[in-house]
UniProtKB/TrEMBL annotation:
Subcellular location: Cell membrane
A GO term from the CC aspect: plasma membrane
Listed PROSITE patterns: ABC_TRANSPORTER_2 (PS50893)
Start and end residues of each ABC transporter domain: 4-229
Species: Lentilactobacillus kisonensis DSM 19906 = JCM 15041
BP GO terms, sorted: amino acid transport
GO molecular function: ATP binding; ATP hydrolysis activity; transmembrane transporter activity
Protein's UniProt name: Putative hemin import ATP-binding protein HrtA
Protein function: Part of the ABC transporter complex hrt involved in hemin import. Responsible for energy coupling to the transport system.
């Protein structure tokens, strides 16, 4: 059974003459142990796809299932619990708490989600792997865009989710950092048995992907990773 599955997903925005068909009959699934890229240009529907996959948005039609459970059939509290315990989001907005230092961002997660998070040693290793171990006493406003992005990645992974959904996680990173993030996501999938789905236009991540999908004008097709990278 796929850990996350989307069947015939359609999404419309607006009404009447302004109605826009953003996603067209999307079929998608991800298994534990896989790093999957969904690649496409800005405005192609990548972010909408990701937020629907994670239950942050409701599709106009179609089904989204996590561990075999249809999200639409869950109560509001059950959906909140699902996102808290099983899904880790790395969104373009970063969503760091501005008045908390980097180290306090993880304390905040511990207060919201009291079980299953990384321990201190594991967190230290994660921060070192992302090259942000010396930033723990900084506030988000004191960080560069790339540093903020890496802290947001660390905070999402700290909660130790079964599914990681990342929206352009390498957009502000140089090639060396992109490789580090790619290796980290690959390790999460392979050694920690997680499903990692990354929506991006960054072809530098291609070398790390198990599968690659192309999304264009709201239509998704699985494609050859080697061809995409050329």
């Amino acid at each position: 059974m796929s850990v996350i599955e989307l069947k015939k997903i359609n999404k419309y925005f607006g009404k009447g003459v302004s109605k826009v068909h953003v996603l067209h009959d999307i079929d998608f699934s991800a298994d534990r142990g896989e790093l999957i890229l969904v690649v496409g240009p800005s405005g192609s529907g990548k972010s909408t796809f990701l937020t629907i996959a994670g239950g942050l948005q409701t599709p106009t039609s179609g089904e989204v299932s996590v561990e075999g459970k249809q999200i639409a059939q869950l109560s509001t509290s059950q959906r909140d619990k699902l996102r808290l315990n099983q899904i880790g989001f790395v969104l373009q907005s970063y969503s760091l708490v501005p008045y908390l230092k980097v180290k306090e961002q993880f304390d905040f997660v511990n207060k919201v989600k009291r079980q299953g998070n990384l321990n201190k040693a594991e967190l230290a290793d994660l921060l070192k792997q992302l090259g942000i171990e010396n930033l723990t006493n900084q506030y988000p406003g004191e960080l560069s865009g790339g540093q903020t992005q890496r802290v947001a990645i660390a905070r999402a992974l700290f909660a130790n989710p079964d599914i990681v959904l990342a929206d352009e996680p390498t957009a502000a990173l140089d090639s060396e950092r992109v490789a580090e993030v790619g290796k980290l996501f690959k390790e999460l999938a392979e050694t920690r048995n997680k499903a990692v789905v990354v929506v991006t236009h960054d072809v530098r991540l291609m070398d790390f992907a198990d599968k690659t999908y192309r999304i264009m004008d709201g239509k998704m097709t699985e494609t050859n990773t080697e061809k995409m990278a050329k």
